[in-house]
Amino acid sequence: MTLPPPREVLAGDKVLRINWLPGSDRLRGRCHCGAEAEGEDPIEMWEWLLAHPNHPEGGPDVPPVPDVLPPPPAHRVTDPSIIRSRIPVLV
Amino acid sequence: MTSIVQNQWYVAAYGREIGRELFSRTICGESILFWRTEAGEVTAMSDRCVHRRFPLSQAPSHLDGDTVVCGYHGFTYGADGKCVAVPGQTRVPRTARLKSYPVVEQDTLVWIFIGDADKADATRIPRAPWLDQEGWTTVSGMEPLAARASLLVDNLMDLSHETYLHGGYIGTPEVAETPITTEVDEEAGIVYVSRHMADAECPPFYAKSTGIEGRITRWQDIEFAPPCLYKLHSRVAPVGVLPNEDGTDPHAFHVEVNYAITPETENSTHDFWMVSRDFALDDEAVTDFLRESNRTVVLQDVTALDVLEQVIAGEPDGYQELSINIDTGALAARRIIARLAAEASGAAAEQAAATAR
Ligand code: FES
Ligand SMILES: [Fe+2]
Ligand SMILES: [Zn+2]
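Predict the joint structure of the above. Result:
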C-alpha cells in the first residue's frame, strides 16, 4: 500500500512544512520561499526553516555525536518533599 | 517568570456549567466568578470582594437580580463588576470595583480573555462548529490535571503515545509506526500534524462505536490553535475507502476530538475534552460508550502527566530532553507558544514603561 503524496492543508502565505519521508528516518523541510532541505533531527530542521530568508547552505546541522560518549548523567532530584511523596503509579 | 501566556482567549467553562448559581473557577492563576444575567448573558469578574476579600462565590453570597451580594458585609456588585451599594452609607467609594473580564459564549464554550482587556478581539477565538451543529452528537467533560499546561500540549501533539499509553482503547501499532507531516502557518499561528494510516487495526474505541469489522483506513489530522484549542479531525473508514473527488465522504465515520487546554495555575490545568461524531447520532449506547471510553483515555493521560509534573517539579532546571521525528509537531507548538508569551510580555513591558513615563 503506497501512501498518498504529502498533504498540504494549510493555505497561508507563510507556511513551513516538515514531511517525515515514509520508509525512512529522514525529514524533509520546505519553506514558503521554496527552500528545501533534508535532515534527521526535528529541532535542527525547525532551526533551519526559521532561519528564513537565510537558510544555511547544506541543510540543517547534524547534532554532533562524539565517538566516545560520556557516561549518561544521573537524574538528579532536588525537592525532598517530592521525593518522599512520590507514589510510583505507573510501575 | 510565568509560563502562562497572557493576552489570550481561554475556555473557562462549558455554557451548561454557568446559570443563575454563582460559579467559581481559577483560570490562569486568577480566581474568577461567573454567573448568568437574567437576560442570559454570561458575566465574569474577580471572585474576591474588594472589602475584606470574602469569595463572592461562597454562601451566603448570592445573586439578587443582576447583582451579586457579598455574603459577609453586603457589598453589592453589578454585572460589570462595579459596586452599586455598600452597607450603611449612600456614597459608594469609586475604587469599589472588581476586575471584569471579556467573555464570549460560542460553540457551547465560554471563552474568557486573560490579560489586557483592551486587546480582546473576539474574532480571534478559534471555532469548533460541530459542538453546536445539526448532524453532530457530542459528549464532553473536564478533568482536573495536576500538571502544567505545556505537558498536555506535548501529549496531544504527539499521538504516537496512543500505542503505548492507550493500547486497547485508541492505540494500535500503526499509530506509532506511521510517519507524520507537519505544517506551521507562521502568520495564523496554527500547527497542523497529519498522520494517515492506509491500512490499520481498528481499536475498540472505533470498532464498537462505528460497527466496522476488520481493518481500517485511519486519518488523524491535528489542528492546534495555541494556546488553548486543540482539534483532532479523525476519519475512520473500511480499508481503502477514500473521500470522493468532490470532497464528500459519505462512507467514512468522522469524529472530532477536541481539547481546550486552560491553565488553572502554573502547575495545574483544566483538561476540557469533547468528542463529536457524525454517525449514530441518537444511539444512546454509542453516546455512553464514547463518553466512558474517552474519559478513561483522558484519565490515563492525567495519571501519567500528574506523575511527570512531580518529576519535573522535583528536578533542577535545564534537564536535557531528547527529541525524535515523532516530536516535530510538539516542537512547533512549543515554539509558537513561546512566541506568543514573548509578544505578551513585550506588550506588558511597553505598557509599564508608558505608565512610568
Ligand atoms: S518513551 Fe517518551 S517518555 Fe519514555
Ligand atoms: Fe493520550
Ligand atoms: Zn525561506
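The radius of gyration of chain B is 23 Å.
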